[in-house]
Amino acid sequence: MKKLYLTALLVIIAQWMMAQNKVITGVVKDSKGEALIGVSILEIGTTNGTITNTDGVFTLTLVTGEAAVLRVSYISHVTREIVTRGLTRLDITMQENTEELEEVVVVGYGQQKKESVIGAISQISARELLKSPAANLSQAISGKLPGVITTQTSGAPGSDDVLIFIRGRASFTGDGQPLILVDGVERAFSQIAPDDIASISTLKDASATAVYGVRGANGVILITTKRGQEQRPTVSLTVNTQWQSPTRKNTYLNAYQSTTLLEEALANDGLASQFSSQDLEMYRKSVAGELSGVDAMRYPNVDWYDYVLRKSAPAQRYNANVEGGTKRMRYFASAEHYRQQGLFKNFSTDPYNNESNSSYRRYAFRANLDFLVNADLTASVNFGTRFEERRGPNANEYSSSYSEVFYELNHTPGWLFPVAYEIGEEGSRQLLYGGNSQNQNNIVARLAKAGFYRQTNTINETNFMANYRLDKLTRGLSVRGMVSFDYDSWYRRLFRADFATHELLGVQNGEYNFATYNTDTELAYAGNNQTTTMKIYMEYALNYSRRFGVHDVTGLLLYNQNDYRYQADLARRYQGLVGRVTYGYDNRYLAELNFGYNGSENFMEGKRFGFFPSLSLGWRASKERFMLPFSKWLDNLKLRVSYGEVGNDQSPQRFLYVPVWTQLGTAYTFGNSSARGGIYESQYPNVDVTWERAKKYNVAVEFGLFGMIEGSIDIFRESRVDILTPYLTRPQWVGVNMAAGNLGETKNAGFEFEARHHQRVNDNLSYNLSFNFTRARNEIVSMNEPAAKTSYRKQEGHPISQYFGLVSEGFITAADLANPDFPVSSFGDVKVGDLKYTDMNGDKFIDDRDVTCIGYSDIPENTYAFTLGCDWKGISFSAMFQGVTGVSRYYDAEAMFAFVDGGKVKEHHLKRWNPALPEADNLSNARYPLLHYDNYGTHNQRLNSFFLQNGSFLRLKNIELSYSLPREIISRWAMADLRFYVNANNLITWDNLDGLVDPESNGSNRYPIMKAVNLGVNIRF
Predict the structure, then answer these.
(1) Long-range pairs for 628-632 at CB < 8 Å and ≥24 separation?
(2) How does DSSP classify residue 677?
(3) Residue 37, C-beta contacts closer than 8 angstroms, at least 6 positions apart
(4) SS3 sequence, 693-712?
(5) Contact (Cβ atoms closer than 8 angstroms) between residue 949 and residue 996
(6) Beta bridge partners of 620
């Protein structure tokens, strides 16, 4: 019996030991059945793990035995957890993570797997773009891409694009905007339908942009439109209705407050009073609504903003698209209609219903087709067309930098005259628009009677592509060609009329006495402007991609050329060669060599071409066997470093190497005779002019933690040399202008940080968080400033677009004026309460020689964004906060100053230096200097640090709440998805401006930046 017990015990122990040393083998493949190399297999609860070999095979001796659970993870694929009980061999299929853009990244002239990308590239998908209600694509990317800095200055319909800077600004020549390519061709992108976009990639370091050579120094944005897949047709319909309103309300004072402050300003300047105490009392009654008839005409209280503008402006967008394909053809087609109305009320008296409001309409169609001609040849056609129509009043509303309507709203005082005088008996009433000798452009009269314009753009963009595989020669070799033709026709017609304004001089015996300015005329055609742009672009490429065991090799050699024609101007052309070689060993060690050899017609023959190389190296450290002990919490660790050179051929003037000759009627004078006409050389050429060259460095680490956190840190530095700069040191005796030379030099440095967290709590609940931060600070090293120029006045050593002005030390006091050594202002007499400036050079005068650097530049040094979202049983919520710091703004005069050109005053002027109060009270409480009238305030209204504003802000940029109906319900209606949503952008803004203006704008004399609330539905069949 003892022997039996002993035998049983030994059998149990043996089985237990065998269980503890259980060996499991397996193979890991992707959804296409191809083996995956370097897949991590970890026994949960231990540090025991392994990775798959070149055939996707692994062997692992388990520590926890039969109860072991394996975590199988691979970049760009969904992590799996597998129970091994009762199993000794596993056949594992990994599914791609389609919710994250991990698999393929669009790079210059091609695509790469994200795991092998070692350039500084950020990418977002259409799903992220559509969370913004903005129909303008340039607005939709704000805050979503690390390293991308955006600034919006206008919300005008059809003219609300943002400025884009990648990693700040490194050149003071040109606008600093990146090269933007749509499906490989340089094109405008802001008005492309967001539903048509597949992805947007931002190329930031030299390893990513060197292939663009002389045009890539400011960074590159690659926009890829959607293509069809081999699947049954999928139809998607989207309908949006939107309401837009300004992010800021006007703060102008009423007639009584304004005239009271006006009298104070006149007294401060020793000028005659304009209003008696009785007049002021009448204005008080007018504000209170106690006046009527002639008294209301004489003492008006017009809120021009309220009278002219609507509370909100509607917009609608409709989009329908279909995608699908067979083994021989794939297709994506879409159609869109978008209409955006402006804020102006309709005052038009035009009998043909032409409104005075501004508006924008967009009709767009796109078709991307791929034809699989045979097993080796694929032919593709991209066709995109847009018809854009802009309408508006006969006012200067054509651009985003100025609005005549808003200038007049800001400039016309509400106490001067009513909008219009209504006189006459019932049935014979006349409407006479108000005005006076200094204010004849009554903006309501202009909107009502001055006419209108219509502007149309017809844009056609076409790509023809072919790709032929040469596997018969050697596997992995292919050739590709593309030819694109773009055509843009722009046409604007103007219809105008003059209009009269009237000033009430008096009323006697019921008879009105008016002074009339100008006359009313009939509406007439006033001509047109039209332009035509054509562009032909071609590229031909030889591609190679092959894997030899653990070796991955790819290569690219590409030729391209571009021919751009605007009207009858000489064509703008460039051409070049592009090369790229990548090598990867065992999916761990990565190297990439890029070059661009291209040129520009901006430079002299023989000096037009340049070579721009880059080298980048990467190491996927997490794939090393010695990192297995950390694989329990470290999912991914990749290090990358790059250096390269890129060019920039942007120039404020073409053909600087050619002398400029000017013909004048009074060019020469001989003896005592009168001037004679002739030709003279007005600009001396620069035959050595060449491109800017940017030397860019980038060091980065990418990481993944605990299967739920991903992120990256990039540190970058750029040195920009040969920037085109005027010869500031040119002596006066030279007697002729000299073409700019390659004299400038800057440096730009900073870092980017990005982190993303996604967690699925259970089958019904998931959430995500993300944060990105970018710091980019530039400095002008040299720009040919004279050596003898006072150091504190030099731009060298300061950021590009650094503000320069007078340094304010507060307010002037009585003690200051009594001090005989107090500096004398050259800008006019000063009084107690005016601004006190620093005498920088100590000459006891305040003048332009005391101007020095103040504040920051107008491009933010720091940008950041925080996003959060969650999904629960079909209900989704997301919100993105975006902010900037390290930026200064100097807004236009109407936004800041009192009584500019005899104009208006705002709420912040109530906090002025009040001469009726003791000096101590003013020093403690005043937030604005002593009031002055018109140009008597010149001393205070110099560009100075007192009025330089802190442009930092934090916005609730985007917020969305949506609900997708359950599939079991919508399947009854043959739908695959039915989603209702409400979203908004620019909803709330926190800043330091106390309601002055929107912090991103450049002032108030332009169409305001808008916030929008959007209701929509998306249906997919």
Answers:
(1) 628/47, 628/49, 628/50, 628/51, 629/47, 631/40, 631/42, 631/47, 631/49, 632/42, 632/46, 632/47
(2) E
(3) 52, 53, 54, 56, 550, 586, 587
(4) EEEEEEEEEEEEECCCEEEE
(5) yes
(6) 638
Residue type, 339: R
pLDDT digits (tens, 9 = 90+) for 629-688: 888 888 889 999 999 999 988 877 888 888 888 888 777 777 777 777 788 788 888 888
Chain centroid to Cα 95, Å, comes to: 35
Cα 40 to the center of its chain, rounded Å:
40
Q: What integer pLDDT is reported at residue 83 of this predicted model?
A: 84
Task: Give the chain's length.
Answer: 1021
- 3-state secondary structure at position 455: strand
- Collapsing DSSP to helix, strand or coil, 83 comes out as strand
H helical segments located in 377-451: 404-411, 443-449
Residues 500 and 440: their CA atoms lie apart, in Å, by 8
Q: Is 677 left (phi over 0), alpha (psi -120 to 50) or beta?
A: beta
Closest CA to 57 of 101, 27, 79, 99: 27
What span, in angstroms and rounded, lies between the C-alpha atoms of 461 and 180? 15
Q: Centre a 10 Å sphere on the Cβ of residue 121 and count the other Cβ atoms it contains.
A: 23
Query: Would you state the structure tokens that stand for residue 507, as one six-digit string?
Result: 């009323």
**For residue range 84-127, what is the model confidence (pLDDT) as tens digits?**
887 888 889 887 665 444 467 888 888 888 778 888 898 888 88
For residue 950, the cross-strand partners are 888
Residues 844 and 824 sit within 8 Å (Cβ to Cβ): yes
Q: How far apart are CA 929 and CA 946, in angstroms?
A: 10
507-510 contacts, C-beta under 8 A, 24 or more apart: 507/294
Radius of gyration of the chain (CA): 34
Nearest alpha carbon to residue 208 among 123, 119, 148: 119
Tokens 């595989």 sit at which residue? 469
All residue ranges of the chain with pLDDT < 70 are 1-21, 32, 54, 75-77, 96-103, 427
The Cα 606–Cα 690 span in angstroms is: 11
- C-alpha span between 360 and 388 (Å, rounded): 7
pLDDT of residue 11: 43
Per-position DSSP letters for 723-762, written without gaps between them: EEE--TT--GGG-SEE--EEEEEEEEEEEEEEEEEEEE-S
User: To which H or E segment does residue 968 belong?
Assistant: helix 967-970
Beta bridge mates, 540: 481, 559
Q: How far apart are CA 765 and CA 626, in angstroms?
A: 36
Distance of alpha carbon 1018 from alpha carbon 63, whole angstroms: 51
Contacts of 759 (CB under 8 A, 6+ apart): 708, 766, 767, 768
Separation of alpha carbons 881 and 958, rounded Å = 7
The angle at the Cα of 423, spanning 420 to 424, to the nearest 5 degrees, equals 155
Q: What is the pLDDT of residue 7?
A: 47
CA distance to 829, 840, 843, 941, per residue, from 807 (Å)? 18, 9, 15, 13
Q: Residue holding tokens 């052309």?
A: 573
Reference 663, options 636, 646, 681, 644; nearest CA is 681
- Tell me the C-alpha to C-alpha distance, in Å, between residue 580 and each of 56, 469, 638: 29, 19, 21
Q: Which of 247, 249, 248, 260 is nearest to 905 (CA)?
A: 260
- Residue 424 burial (CB count, 10 A): 12
Give the span between the Cα atoms of 401 and 411, in whole angstroms: 17
What is the distance between the alpha carbons of residues 814 and 946, in angstroms, rounded to a whole number? Answer: 20
- The three-class DSSP label of residue 267 is helix
Question: Rounded to an integer, what distance in angstroms lies between the CA atom of residue 489 and that of residue 459?
Answer: 7
**Dist CA 129 CA 1004 (whole Å):** 29
Report the alpha-carbon distance of residue 153 to residue 166 in Å, rounded: 18
Please state, in angstroms and rounded to a whole number, the distance separating the CA atoms of residues 842 and 850. Answer: 9
Residues paired with residue 769 on neighbouring β-strands, in sequence order: 757, 868
Contact 609, 661 (CB under 8 A): no
